[in-house]
Design goal:
By secondary structure, the protein is an alpha+beta fold. Helix content is 59%, strand content 9%. Among the domains are: 155 residues, no CATH class; 54 residues, no CATH class; 142 residues, Rossmann fold; 91 residues, no CATH class.
Length: 674
Amino acid sequence: MKLAVFGEATVSLGGQLVPRVPANFLRIIVYLLLESPNHSVSRGKLAQVFWSDTDQAHASMNLRQSLARIRKFQEQYGLNLVQGDATYVYLNLSQVRAELLSIDLLEYLEFAQLGDIESVLSLAGLYSGDLLAHNEPQNSDFDEWLDVQRVKLRDDLITTLLRMVNQPVGVSIDEKRQCARKLIEIDPYQEVGYRTLMQTASQLGLIAKVERTFRECAKKLRDDLDVDPEEETIELYQQLLPKLSPATTRSLILPQPAPPLVANGVEIQTPQSILATTQLEQNKKAGLPRVMVLYMPHNAADPMEQLAASLVDDITIGLCRLRTLSVVAPYTSKRVVSESPIDSFEGLNAQFGVNYAVDSKIVRRDGFCFLSVKLVDVATQEIVWAEKQKFDYVLPEQQYRQLSIRIILSVVSVIEKSELDRYNKLYQDPNAYYWYLVGKREFEKLDVAKLRQARQSFKNALTAAPDFVPALSGIARTMQREWLVLARKDKDILLEGEQIARHAAPADPDDERPLRELGTISMYLGKFDDSLEYFDQGESINPQHADLLADYADALNHYGYLDLSLEKIEQAIALNPLAPDYYYWVGAGTLHDLDRYEEAIAFIQRMQNPRAAARPMAACWAMLGEREKASEWRQRSLEDNPDFRVGDWIKNMSLRIPEQRQKYEASLREAGFQ
């Protein structure tokens, strides 16, 4: 049996709550544990403390009746904890010593005597809120006594946690993070806790978490207290941000090799990067197209030429971060331009295995400066894509970054389309990249049949190249998307997808996609802190990956950070203006939770297949009082998923904050879902 007096006081037996606990049972236990070293108090004093608003005779009678109810309760459940005689009331701890009974406060007091980090973490785990948090005041001396004890315990724990986060040695990064989180949970205005989380995130290379923690701190202080963070917090934030690098901490994933993997009865081989002695051999095995980015300067001393060269370097590095292209390193590209001026692109394939060249140069016309970018198919010398963008010193840094991202996305999109067309026309033997493209073309659609077709294509890719991480990540993605679209109750397919993503993660430490899948699946499994950690790591590898940012936004929504979620999805759409439907699904969900129903509907209407979001669309129309439209969309949703039941779906929704789940349930029922 367990007695819990921190937070919402409960008595449980075999994991089940015991109903109808006598009113003063837990109060008397708390008083005896904290007030007396030998856990014994005279009947007269106990009566006076608990019934100080009555005369002595009535107080004694009330105590006698209360102890009688407690004795009957204990007999019913085999307890002998609260005992009494003619003079004293005391605690009999024999069942505690025999480990037949546990009391969280007694364990807390024992750990508090030790002072080591393990004991402190145990204290943090036991402290789930104030003593008897839901105690109803009875205008007695006990109420005042309880208030004093609550403050003392809370302050003592805060002091202990502060000592641990400030301890220079003997406390690991993870232990400091746990202490800091508990510190903020107990006192959300403790900036030391936020600073510790920022520092530990910096040490782990989690750049996004540093920024998110600072924003969370600033928002809490401004919303609740109308003050800004302390100078020390602001200075630490400014100090850490420039020093962070996109290095990842992949040891947080799975350092051990995983067992053989079976997905839907089909065995998927474990990635073995060592099968290919170089990255180039791996890329060739998968059939990835090889790209060289060239910048052709007219005058290397021209400041505008130098600025353009820097931008082209950024574009090259952005392409290098992708794992569905093989990119020639910038150093080699510069030597090709400087040592052998190119009139045509012949020879690049024979010498470097290049399939596509990105030809970039500065063009001046009518007093304006433009950056001209062309994508050339080396085999045919055909220009398959070209773009000219105005280029000027006065453009803000953000616009240069947007320009770089837009060019990267365009190059990738055109190459993928060109390669798929080439395979379809020439009937070449399919390779991993071909099957990856086929799967990728289908799985952006929120359609179950298409998702399953995509999964089979990704499996075909693994047959051609068992260590092709993008295909493994793709399989995991189709599984979590299918679970989402079908609103399935069981989570077996999510667990299977998680296993596949874990297999993919160690194969390529610089690929953020497995982290993205682990973050999304962890979110749906209710492992919220793990989810945000994975997304932090993924964003630190590739902060311009729009799809990852969209999923990050969804994870922030499930965590309850609605404003940050909306900010992240808007950032993803800015990076990927012709966004897939999933982006708008995520944005609409966040806007719904913010009670911005018209904007949520507008997001859904931007989808190519709004029917996939018929359920949230019906909910939004219902909350606007448009019952006819809500009924129309509810009917569409039930046609696609006739087995949908609100209770089952809500029960399996992984939202950290209960009020958010309740809001969604209310809007679904308002729309007429059963």
